[in-house]
Every structure is written in structure tokens, then in C-alpha cells.
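Quick illustration, no need to memorize.
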Amino acid sequence: MGVRIPFRRDLDFEYGVSAAVSPNIRRVVANNPSPFTLYGTGTYILGHGNVAVVDPGPADPAHIEAVLAATRGETITHLLVTHTHADHSPGCALLRESCDAPAYGYGPHGAGKLEEGVVVEEGGDMDFEPDVQVRHGQVIEGDGWSVECVYTPGHTSNHVCYQLREERALFSGDHVMGWSTSIVSPPDGDMENYMASLDLLLRRDDALYWPTHGPAITAPKPHVEAFIAHRVEREEQIKACLADGVPRIREMVPTMYADLPEFIYSAAARSVFAAMVYLVQRGEVTCRGEIGVDAEYGLPG
């Protein structure tokens, strides 16, 4: 791989303990580490007194109790959800047993595709339904804080980032993380939308990102630029495989992801498939038969 992404993985934290990461932001990390969540879900608390909670996390009673302990003596007034994967939104239902804060989000799982008539696979938090559906550019105001909603489909079709305007700090969910690239898995994941959403972030003036997993991204634009270059490089790898007579995605993955363990290959194949769909849409790759992970692909001509 020629592109070097400035990954950052070091994080000073203790599970279940609230830590102030800025004057207006606290973080509680859930004990759900995995190859896809790094150390676990970072739930953020915005403001003081009347507060917002960003990504309540998994349906883990211990984590929700830690969030409630961190806000004891305060009132949770808003629940802001970036998207509906199982490590982000299910904690809303548990928090709602102890507070009556409305949940904010773009829509239920698959909302950005369902409105186009595309049926997405199950696997997300199918029970989540926001009380308030947010849209790009919308501003949500609280007690001493305000957030701007930034619609960033791609990782999922309902992914939203939130900028704490008082600090120009963007809660980037899984759209941009410091420790890893994001998985884009069709049909809910969409590489064309993902690349457009990355380009959108380049045009913004966010001072830093707080992803839901891992540490802050303190130099956002170089990081996003590296993400874009990485995806373009993946496309070139795909076309090189096709030129070498390797027509199937699962045969490409071991070469394209030679630096990763084999248990990642299945997820990697989904991201390659997303890139392949995007290449087919642009006419740079052809598909023999119905497009899919196991289809046979080739170069035009």
C-alpha cells in the first residue's frame, strides 16, 4: 500500500469511568472491545446540568449505569445517535428507562436507502426509531451548547455526524475514525455516498473529530485526504487484479489485504464489493451476470 494513513490508536481511559476530554465534553467507554470497535464504544456527554448524550452505545446495563452515574445530579435532555449499528444506538432504549430525553437521528436502520426503495439487510438496531428525525444543516440547541447535524451516508445510509459548535468539534461516529478505516457494506453501505461524504468534510472547518471508537483526530483534513487517497488506491488495486486475470472479489482479498489476518477477509470482501459497485456505476469495470460479491468482473473492452 502506497498511501499512509496517520492512524492513532493510543487512548487513556478506564472502562465505565467518565473522563473530561474538553471543557464541554465527557466520555465513557463501554467494555465492548472487538476488531471492529477497538477498545469499545465511546459515549460522549455534552454540556453541564442539562446535557446531551451522543451514541449511548450497546445494550449493556453496566455501560448505561456508568453513563447515568456520570450524569447524576444532571438532566439528560437529548440522545443523539450517529447511526443504528448495534454498538451505537441500542443503549437509547435502556437510557429511556431512566430519563425521558427524546432520541435524535436521521431515521431507522436503512432510512437513507429505504426512501429510495432499496431493502437493506437486517443486522442493525432494527428497534430504533428516532423521536426527532434530523436533516443536514439542522441545528439542535441545548442548555449552553448547540450542535449542527452533518449528514454523512456511506458507512450506513442513516449516518449523521454532529458538530458541537462551541468547540467546532465533530462527533464523527464511524464515518471517520482515527484507528481504522470504515467498513462500507452494500446494500446499506454505499461507496459513492461515502466518498461524497468525505468530500463534504473536506469543505468544512471542524477543528477536530471525536470518533465513537478510539482517540480524537486532531488534524482532520489531512486524515480525510488520506482516507480518500486510500479508497482511490483500493480501486486501482481492483483494476490491477482484473488486468492480471483475477475476476472474483474473494480471490482479490488475500492480495489486497495481505497485511491483515484472515478473519478480517469476510468484512474486507464487503468493502471491496462496495468499491466494485462504484466502479461498475462509473463504467470502469464490467460485471458478467448479476452484480454481487461472488460475481465475475472484468475490465471494459
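Residues 233-298 form one domain.
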